[in-house]
């Protein structure tokens, strides 16, 4: 309220609102209330009746209705991020080494060992996770809602959700994964288990919204 008007007399609208809020038990027209006093009394009535809580709930529902599909998906993925990250840690427990031999070619895998080194003509690189993969959403071409949702999902996956994923690790941990040749960003974008979980969350959200879409993930 404008402080320059607090000493002005209450308006007829305020007094009528007070009469209604008080159950019509008292006529406030002869009480010489100021605008500020009338406003404070209305607040007290509203708090006592629970009107403010009801108004807040209505406001929240209206705000939710105003949100677009992309914003709702963002809220959903953030709310389920811990579920996603739990799946991430399972994938990241799988560790291996890729050996590339310069002479004669060929690539070999050794599981349950992580180190990076060069010995003669054999180069060894760390590999974290259960395999590189490629994922995509599947839906009818004329499904505009699914198309909108898929576009929003890709933006979130490559933006906010990826940043949340990286930030779950300390600076030292981030540096470690870079030092072994397997940065967190690469793990996040390529791992089969991580991709599957992230895409499945988006599809789960879609089904809750009545949008018909699915996804596929394949080892690359």
User: Overall 3D geometry?
Assistant: elongated
> How far do the termini sit from each other?
63 Å
Spatial strand arrangement across the major sheet: 2-1-4-3
Please tell me how large the radius of gyration is. 30 Å
Total helices: the number is 10
Kindly give the count of domains: 3
How much is the average pLDDT? 77
Low-pLDDT stretches are: 105-120
Extended strand count: 6
One letter per element, helices H and strands E, the order comes to: HHHHHEEEEEHHHHHE
What percentage of residues falls in helices of 4 or more residues? 40-55%
- Please state roughly what percent of the residues sit in beta strands, choosing from under 5%, 5-15%, 15-25%, 25-35%, 35-45% or over 45%: 15-25%
Coarse structural class = alpha+beta
How would a textbook summarize the main sheet?
4 strands, antiparallel
Structural summary, described in words:
The protein contains ten helices and six strands, in the order αααααβββββαααααβ. It has about 220 residues and is an alpha+beta fold. It folds into three domains: about 5-65, no CATH class; about 65-95 and about 130-220, no CATH class; about 95-130, no CATH class. Strands 2-1-4-3 form a four-stranded antiparallel sheet, with no helix packed on it. Strands 5-6 form a two-stranded antiparallel sheet. Helix 4 packs across helix 6 (about 145-160). The chain is elongated and about 80 Å long. The model is unreliable at about 105-120 (pLDDT under 50).
């Amino acid at each position: 309220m404008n402080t320059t008007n607090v000493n002005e007399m209450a308006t007829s609208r305020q007094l009528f609102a007070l009469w209604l809020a008080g159950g019509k038990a008292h006529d406030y027209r002869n009480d010489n209330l100021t605008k500020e006093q009338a406003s404070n009394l209305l607040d007290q009535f509203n708090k006592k009746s629970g009107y403010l809580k009801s108004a807040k709930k209505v406001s929240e529902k209206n705000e939710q209705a105003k949100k677009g599909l992309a914003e709702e998906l963002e809220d959903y993925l953030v709310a389920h991020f811990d579920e996603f990250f739990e799946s991430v840690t399972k994938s990241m427990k799988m560790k291996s080494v890729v050996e590339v031999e310069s002479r004669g070619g060929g690539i070999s895998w050794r599981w349950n060992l992580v180190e990076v080194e060069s010995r003669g003509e054999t180069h060894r690189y760390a590999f974290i996770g259960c395999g590189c993969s490629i994922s995509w959403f599947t839906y009818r071409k004329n499904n505009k809602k699914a198309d909108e949702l898929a576009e929003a999902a890709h933006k979130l996956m490559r933006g906010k959700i990826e940043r949340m994923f990286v930030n779950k690790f300390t600076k030292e941990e981030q540096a470690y994964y870079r030092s072994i040749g397997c940065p967190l960003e690469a793990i996040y974008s390529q791992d089969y288990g991580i991709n599957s979980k992230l895409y499945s969350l988006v599809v789960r959200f879609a089904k809750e919204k009545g949008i018909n879409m699915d996804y596929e993930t394949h080892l690359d």
